[in-house]
Amino acid sequence: WTPNDRAPAPEYRERLTAIMKDIQKFYAKEMKRLGFGERTIQLDLKGDQLLNIHVVKGRKPYAAYNGDSGHEILNESAPTLRSRGINPESETVVIFCNMANWDPQQRRITQNSPYYAGGSSRSGTAWQVDSPILNLASLADQGNHVSDGQYGKISLGRYNSIFIGGVCHELGHALGLPHNLERPDEREAFGTALMGSGNRSYGEELRGESKGSFLTLAHGLRLASHPIFCGSVKA
C-alpha cells in the first residue's frame, strides 16, 4: 500500500520476497525444533518465484496518514483484494505500508506507519513498514550506521533486525499469537522469544550479538493447528 503521492520503494518485490521467505524458513525451523515438523506459512509466488504482491494506491497523499491509519489503509486495500479473490475477513493479510522516509545523504530514516497486528486462527491483519533499506542481505551488516528516528544511531544490520523481526513478530499476532516471555533457561539455550522482544533480536546471531529469536512451545502448539500451518480448517 502506498499513498497517492508516492511510488513503492525500489525493488520492493525482490526485497520483500527475500524477507518473507526467510521468515517462512524461521517458522519451519522452529516448528521442526519443537517436534511438529517443518510446518510454516504459505506464500503466493508468481512464475518468477517472487511474491505476488497486490499494489494498492491510497486515496490521499502521505501527509494525510499516520500510525493510527491502519483500518483506513485496510479499507482502501479491501476492494483490490476482493477483486483478486482474497477476502480480508477470512484470510491472513500482511500490508506493507510505504510510509518510511530515507535520506541517503544524511543516512537518516524515519517512518510514520501503522505497525501492529491482530488475528486468530480464522483471519488476521498485520501492518508493516517498508523502506529502501529494508533488506535481508543487510542483516549481517555491523557497520553502515543509520540514524533512526526512534532507535537513534544503529548499524544497518540492527535496523534490519528490528524491522524484519517486526514483520515476523507482527505476523505472529496476525496468526493469533499473544505476547509472551522466555524462561531464563530458554534464554540461555535459544535466545529471545519472538513474541516477547524477539522482534528486535531477529538475525542478531548473524552479527554475533545474541542467539537471536525463537518460538516457545506454547506458541508452537497454537501454530501447529492453525489452518495455514496444518492445511485443515476442520473444527
Estimate the mean pLDDT confidence: 97
Radius of gyration from CA coordinates:
17 Å
Order of helices and strands: HHEEEEEEEHHEEHH
Tally the helices: 6
Q: Report the sheet with the most strands, covering strand number, pairing sense and barrel closure.
A: 4 strands, mixed
Strand percent estimate = 5-15%
Low-confidence stretches: none
- Give the structural class: alpha/beta
**SS elements, strand count:** 9
Strand order of the largest sheet: 2-3-6-7
Tell me what the structure shows.
The radius of gyration is 17 Å and the shape is globular. By secondary structure, it is an alpha/beta fold. It starts with 11 loop residues before the first helix and ends in a 5-residue tail after the last helix. A four-stranded mixed β-sheet has the order 2-3-6-7. The longest helix is centred in the N-terminal third of the chain and has 22 residues, at about 10-35. About 30% of the residues lie in helices and about 15% in strands. The protein has helices at about 10-35, 70-85, 155-175, 185-190, 215-225, 225-230, and strands at about 90-95, 100-105, 110, 115-120, 125-130, 145-150, 150-155, 190-195, 215.
Q: What key attributes describe this structure?
A:
single chain; 235 residues; alpha/beta; 4-stranded mixed sheet; 3-stranded mixed sheet; 14% strand
Give a concise summary.
The chain is an alpha/beta fold and 235 residues long. The chain is 31% helix and 14% strand.
How are the elements arranged and paired?
Blueprint (H helix, E strand, L loop, with lengths): L11 H22 L36 H14 L8 E6 L2 E4 L4 E4 L5 E3 L4 E6 L16 E3 L3 E3 L1 H19 L9 H7 L1 E2 L19 E2 L2 H8 L2 H4 L5
Parallel strand pairs: 1-5, 3-6, 8-9
Antiparallel strand pairs: 2-3, 4-5, 6-7
